[in-house]
Amino acid sequence: MDELAPGIHRWSAPHPEWRPKSEEVQSFALVVEEALLLVDPLLPPEGDERTAPLLVALELLAAAATRVELLVTVPYHTRSAETLYGRFAPERPTRLWGHRLVRKRLRSGTPLEVVPMGAAGTAAPIASGSAEAYTIGRPRRSEHPLYVPSLRAAVFGDAVVGAQDGLRFWTLSSGTGEAWYRDVFAPTLAPLAERPLEHVLVTHGPPVIGDGQRQLALCLAAPPVQMY
Question: pTM higher than 0.90, yes or no?
Answer without folding.
Answer: yes
